[in-house]
Each structure stands twice: as C-alpha cells, then as structure tokens.
Amino acid sequence: MNTKKYLAQKLFLAALFILPAIVLGQVNTGLPSLELKTGIYRIQAEIADTPQAREVGLMNRTSMPINSGMLFIFEQKAGHCFWMNNTKIPLSIAFIADDGKIVNIEEMQAETTNNHCPKAAVRYALEMNKQWFSERVIVPGSVISGLPRR
C-alpha cells in the first residue's frame, strides 16, 4: 500500500472519531469522569476532586453536551459555595448529601459573582447545563447514584 493512501485512510478514521466529539463538545480535558444516574437519566460527569480542578471547574468553556456535567468532590462536608466568575455558560448546581439525595438546586447565571450555597453541609456538588434538573423534574430529595464513596 502506498504511503499517501495509508495516511489518508488513517486521517479519515481519526476524523470519524474526533470530529463528532468536538462537535458534541466532548473535548478531552484530562479530568477523569464517571457515569452517574438519576431516575432514567444517565450523566457523564467529569470529576473535580482536587483543589486545582475545583478552582477551575467549568471556567472558560463555551458549551457542554446535554447529559454531561462536572461533579465536585470535597474531602469534608461543609457549606461549599460556588460562583460563576469566568464561567461562560449558565449552569444549574445540585448540592448532594452523602446518601446521594439532592439537598437543593440553584440556577446560576454566567459571568456573575453571586454565591450559591448548599442548605446543609455536603461533600458533593453537580453542575449541569442551566435548567437540566428542572426540565427533567429532578428536585430536592431525588437521588443521584454512582457517587464515589470517600
């Protein structure tokens, strides 16, 4: 097989796998991810479990796939508050107790510095596209399964 034809085939195959991911916003960020579930819905969640990853969060992104989000994991249960400085997309955040039950959900506007805090001490917070939870009738008391145990 000639080299040009071989390279063309390799590029074509690479494009088949890479372009859909780019179009869907699934660009590899280097963060680990896991699948979470709530009711009939599956969520592909990037994990922010280090101080650096939690500090950056979803800053400077311009889109996020529909059923994707970011799970923030803290070492200690506390009133971990969030804001949207340098975050370009509006988000919803669910604060989650250790048993997976959603404590409260907040809607957050892009590029704001308003604090959004849990109504009880939590170890987990899940950010999704704005109104993701309300559009699926996921409310406080609903359970998120698949959370890593600490």
CATH superfamily of the largest domain: Protein of unknown function DUF192
Looking at the overall shape, the CATH architecture of the largest domain is Sandwich
**CATH class designation of the largest domain:** Mainly Beta
Radius of gyration: 18 Å
Q: Which sequence of strands runs across the widest sheet?
A: 1-2-3-6-4-5
What global shape is seen?
globular
Q: Tell me about the largest β-sheet.
A: 6 strands, mixed
| Count of discrete alpha- or pi-helical segments spanning 4 or more residues | 3
How many E strands? 6
Strand content: 25-35%
How many separate structural domains?
Answer: 2
Approximate helicity band:
10-25%
Distance between the termini: 53 Å
CATH topology of the largest domain: Jelly Rolls
- State the secondary-structure class: alpha+beta
Give the SSE order as H and E letters: HEEHEEEEH
Low-confidence stretches at least 5 residues in length (pLDDT < 50)? Answer: 11-27
Mean pLDDT: 87
Description:
By secondary structure, this protein is of the alpha+beta class. It has 2 domains: 1-29; 31-135, Protein of unknown function DUF192 (Jelly Rolls), CATH 2.60.120.1140. It contains 3 helices and 6 strands; from the N terminus they run αββαββββα. It has helices at 3-23, 51-56, 132-135; strands spanning 33-38, 41-48, 68-78, 91-96, 102-108, 122-129. It has a 6-stranded mixed sheet. The radius of gyration is 18 Å and the shape is globular. The chain starts with a helix and ends in a 15-residue tail after the last helix. Mean pLDDT is 87; it is low at 11-27.
